[in-house]
Amino acid sequence: MRIVVLGPPGSGKGTRAKIIGEVYKLPVIATGDMLREAVANGTEMGKLADIYMKRGELVKDDIVIGIVKERLKRPDVKDGFVLDGFPRNLPQAQALDTILKEIGVEIDAVLNVIASADTIVGRLSLRSICPTCGAIYHIKDKPPKKLGICDVCGETLIQREDDKNEIINHRLKVYEEQTYPILERYDKMGKTREISGELGFDEIKDEIKRVLNDLT
Ligand code: AMP
User: Which of 99, 144, 158, 197 is deepest in the core (most CB within 10 A)?
Assistant: First the structure.
């Protein structure tokens, strides 16, 4: 199964992508996580990406497409994958088509995560993440067992720099202008399916199974 998860920042797309990966035993390819890792490691690419990420803008296409292309060549994606946060604009969607054609596979479904503006802002301002393993927490809805510490790996949790209020609005605008239009493209291909970004943690799994049922 090959799935793309799309949705505005704070819609819960990352959480859903991780759950799909767990349920169907698929690797999750999250470009945001990969870029944050490059930033944390201080690589040349990370230094460049950091400039755009801090401002809430998209990192240059050639960088992101290069990362995804490399990742999709690895053997663990042979039986499927979940793409979280890629493609994010039309050139990336076209590049993905080309990469997949070369490998001889197709995307089965593009999940569009729908959430209200109130949910998005509430979620981003109360979100913390683990800089090491990428686990996502929410002060109210999904707090870690020990305040400020990752349940999975014991690392100290951080707030993403781009989750600060002044950057959130810009990221939402970028989504509307650049990412939202690619949904129309996948719609025409008959690939899009809507899922709710509003459900509680326990209900997410059931909805995902219902929506992806016919692809397994
Ligand atoms: P995310 O974790 O998906 O919210 O992504 C965080 C940030 O990483 C975005 O605001 C962008 O700056 C960058 N990013 C992630 N994925 C992409 C992509 N496909 N294209 C360009 N920039 C990206």
Answer: 197
Ligand 1 site, residue 15, Cβ cutoff 6 A: no
Contacts 24+ apart (CB under 8 A), 128-133: 128/157, 128/158, 128/159, 129/157, 129/158, 129/159, 129/160, 130/155, 130/157, 130/158, 131/36, 131/40, 131/155, 131/158
**Which atom of ligand 1 lies at the shortest distance from residue 56's CA?**
10
In a domain, 82, yes or no: yes
- pLDDT per position as a tens digit, 36-79: 999 989 999 999 999 999 999 999 999 999 999 999 999 999 99
Q: Active-site residue numbers? A: 13, 88, 127, 160, 171
CATH number, domain with residue 88: 3.40.50.300
- Cβ of 12 closer than 6 Å to ligand 1, yes or no, is no
Ligand 1 within 6 A of CB of 172: no
CA of 182 from ligand 1 middle (Å) equals 15
Question: Is 209 inside a domain boundary?
Answer: no
- Provide the number of structural domains found in the chain: 1
Range of the domain at 183: 2-203
pLDDT digits (tens, 9 = 90+) for 112-126: 999 998 889 888 888
